[in-house]
Amino acid sequence: MTLIPGDGIGPEVTGAAQTVAAATGVSIEWESIDAGERAIQATGTPLPDAVLESIRRNKVALKGPITTPIGSGFRSVNVALRQQLDLFASVRPARAIAGEGTRFPETDLIVVREATEGLYSGVEHWVDRDHTAAETVNVITRKASDRIVRFAFELARRQGRRRVTAVHKANIMKTTGALFQTAFREMAKNYPTIPADERLVDNMCMQLAKKPEEYDVIVTTNLFGDILSDLCAGLAGGLGVAPGALYGDAIAVFEPVHGSAPKYAGQDKANPVAEILSLELMLRHLNETEAADRIWRAVWETIAEKKVVTYDLALPGYTDRPVPPSSCSAMAREIARKVPLVDLTQPAPRPTARSGARGAIDPSLEA
Ligand code: NAD
């Protein structure tokens, strides 16, 4: 298995995930390889060919976050990796865990984001020599739109989800938005048993901030998906608990939603859960279902018990039940300790609705 420790807090949280992986008993041979800042120091490039070769050979990778300098400097390794390996589907589940760190304990959303085109295509330039005007091209193709929308419906069908909502801005972006909208409407006809609807992205943000429990699978283009998945992570408890996966046809890379959080690098302070739950998604992908179930329950129990949790789940301001914060490695060890002990005969814990069944959409909130 390819392991990319990444930058900033990356080595700490991927190390934490390895501790938990070892506790599952699943035999994983890690092939650790650098991308990002450490790769630049060693090879002069942030994404050496050896990284792509390792992922292509192993077909699966667990990745830590990688720093992308703003403005000048090298191009985003994350965007390049997605494009070069054709990892077209970025899947980011936002599940509230034990009601901690969130005002919305019932949040249980999945953002499915197109990850190879849109405004992240890298087609951008200065319009004039003085750099007073610039353009970034929003590339949307029918092929990529069909592929991501089909992926979202298939995911909803496999996981028995309630609804698929497409998010776009087709009222303003009359070509790119409308192309994505048409792809969604036509694909929805192939899934008549799955309720399908649409929201404009601005309205979606407002509705998620008010009633996240009414939504389920959200499918959208690259930039909107990037923004909405951070919003959904915030609803579910913060970046510290938000995992992610990138799927292509034959390759999958698992990584947290969060970045390299440089201000916490080397402090053993960051929450390891997002990386550990990315490992959980990886084990499900590998059909190691029992190991994945054990990790989910051990994370849930650790957060619910709230004796060994990192600062973002512990301190006043982040929680109404403050406790002394633990380190990243201590929380990982606690989760790993629980992994073999969890009781798989009990139903798996899930985000719980405050008021029983989820209601119909409030028409006053429609666009
Ligand atoms: P960030 O996610 O790194 O950090 C934002 C804030 O969120 C942090 O300051 C911290 O308060 C909190 N946070 C993030 N992860 C946490 C964790 N595990 N535990 C506790 N708190 C956590 O976002 P940023 O500061 O905008 O980006 C930093 C760098 O990461 C940038 O270079 C950016 O390009 C890169 N980035 C990489 C990826 C990726 O590799 N997939 C994703 C997003 C950002």
Question: Would you kindly provide a written description of the structure presented here, covering whatever features stand out?
Answer:
It contains twelve helices and twelve strands. It has 367 residues and is α/β, with parallel strands linked by helices. It has a domain of 230 residues: Isopropylmalate Dehydrogenase. The strands form two sheets. The protein has a ten-stranded mixed β-sheet with strand order 2-1-3-12-11-4-5-10-8-9, with helices on both faces. The protein is globular and about 55 Å long. The C terminus is likely disordered. Bound molecules: nicotinamide-adenine-dinucleotide. Nicotinamide-adenine-dinucleotide binds next to loops.
User: Going across the major beta sheet, what is the strand order?
Assistant: 2-1-3-12-11-4-5-10-8-9
CATH topology of the domain at 2-102 and 237-365: Isopropylmalate Dehydrogenase
How would you characterize the largest beta sheet?
A: 10 strands, mixed
Mean pLDDT: 93
C-alpha geometry: globular
Q: What's the CATH H-level superfamily name of the domain at 2-102 and 237-365?
A: Isopropylmalate Dehydrogenase
> What is the gyration radius calculated from CA atoms?
20 Å
User: H/E order of the elements?
Assistant: EHEHHEHEEEEHEHEHEHEEHHHH
Helix content: 25-40%
CATH level-1 class of the domain at 2-102 and 237-365: Alpha Beta
Low-confidence stretches: 354-367
Any guess at the CATH architecture of the domain at 2-102 and 237-365?
A: 3-Layer(aba) Sandwich
Q: What fraction of residues sit in β-strands? A: 5-15%
The overall strand count is 12
Q: Note the gap between the termini.
A: 45 Å
